[in-house]
Amino acid sequence: MNWPTAADAASIAQDATHSEDRLNNMVMLVRKHAGVLLAPLMATTAVLLSACTLPGMHMDHAPVIPVTSAGDQAATDWFALSASTPLAAPDSDVRIGAPIGNTATATGNTELTVPISDINIALIQRLRQDEVRQSSMDQPRLFAAPAPYTLGAGDVLQITVWDHPELTAAMGTQSQSQVRPSDAPAGFVVDQMGNIAFPYAGVFNVMGLRTDQVQAQLYRRLTKVYREPQITVRIGSFRAKKVYIDGEVHAPGVQPINDVPMTLYEAISRAGGFTSAADQSRMELLRDNVSYPVNLSQMIDNHSNPSNILLKDGDLLHVVSRDENGVFVMGEINKPMTALPMRTGKLTLSDALSQAGSVNMMTADATQMYVIRGGDGKQPHVYHLDGQSPVSMVLANQFELQPKDVVYVDSTGLARFSRVLGQLLPAINAGLTAAIVTR
Q1: Which of 23-37, 165-179, 240-254, 410-424 has the highest mean pLDDT?
Q2: CA distance 359 to 364
Q3: Of 151, 153, 227, 159, whose CA–CA distance to 199 is shortest?
């Protein structure tokens, strides 16, 4: 290796009479030996820049995820096999890769195959049909025809026998002071056994009866004492049956069921309506320890009246917040963020990209857009969209995202090259400067 020597520098000083000439000669000396100085550094740079040929997030075949880990050696083997075992994609829209390595070992290690599907019209229609089919299985279980209110334990009856004011005193008097809402008003309270006691009629059971049935029983009993008594029976307080509403409503809490049927709309209206953060497409109705999803927007789109859903005693209606159903948008995006669904609960791929400020036109590879879906024990799935053509945005506007989806936009090879080069140039400059100074 021919490094510049002190004799070379002295020769330059003798040959030049002016300072400008000496400076020019020094530059020529550096250029003469630049190849020798930079050869080792450029060799190292060439090796490191070869990383730019890696495909990044380009998924030419289905990835395989190890379900369990058997230590560092197992992870190393998995990465080595992943890099050295390319899988050819079949001609179909869904590309499924074979498991890498042993599918089962003595320790129970397995690999999870993740399929990749191209986003097209057929896929969008199939996903919509699956969603409608699932909702059609759950919603009929919640539909019911309204029925008259029947009495239960805790209800308060107000009974009037006309022309017999002495019987009215049996109901007691309501205190004029402020009472709690849970306190029973004046009247005949149905006990835990479903019985009430009325003068000259004795104790009799009214559990599960309508007010007209209670009136008929009282008439038969009082005719033994009074001739053709005129009786009025009404419910003074509904305390036996109730539903619970929480989440994104203005007045969450307990709502008693009264003689007005407690439909879905009735319950939401009594709770003050939805807040601005409510996700109307992912409500949950808990009944008898079974959770039923309620998609209000989808029911309206399918011309199904949500008022046909009748809430029953003990039901819990939970209105989920949109903040809990966000979608993560990352990669070559102008503003990586968590995109929130609309108030109707809908969020398409184009909506998510728009909220994130669209893709970065300088670094994004529009042909490599991915939606990674999976979680909560479900089979992971990757959806790919080639967004190079403006027509593909029509597909993006129809592809609906689900909560916790990950939208990833890959970078171009030139962008990766530029980033690696940007990290190497400071080291190259420092090495070149040090070599010139020390020699």
Answers
A1: 240-254
A2: 6
A3: 159
**Cα dist. 270→249, 257, 284 in Å?**
10, 11, 17
CA distance 17 to 23: 11
Q: Measure Cα distances from 200 to 28, 197, 207, 222, 288 in Å.
A: 125, 9, 20, 7, 41
Distance separating alpha carbons of residues 130 and 166, to the nearest angstrom: 66
Interval 366-407: pLDDT, tens: 899 999 998 666 788 999 999 888 888 899 999 999 999 999
Give the number of other Cβ atoms within 10 Å of residue 351's Cβ: 19
> Cα separation of 329 and 324, whole Å?
15
Find the length of the chain: 439
Is 357 in a helix, a strand, or coil? Answer: coil
Neighbours of 113 (CB within 10 A): 17
Each residue of 144-165: pLDDT tens digit? Answer: 888 999 999 999 999 989 988 8
Domains for the chain: give ranges and CATH numbers.
156-173+182-237 (3.30.1950.10), 243-321 (3.10.560.10)
Q: 310, 317 in Cβ contact below 8 A?
A: no
Closest alpha carbon to 293 in 268, 262, 318, 322: 318
Cα distances from 216 to residues 38, 212, 223, 233, in angstroms, run 107, 6, 11, 10
Task: Write down the number of H helices and E strands in the chain.
Answer: 10, 19
> Among 273, 380, 382, which Cα is nearest to 319's?
273
Tracing tokens 């809490």 back to the chain, one arrives at 253
Q: Which of 120, 130, 117, 93 is nearest to 398 (CA)?
A: 120
- In this structure, what token pair is assigned to residue 174? 């309501």
Q: And the tokens for 281?
A: 């497409």
**How far apart are the two ends of the chain, measured CA to CA in Å?**
12
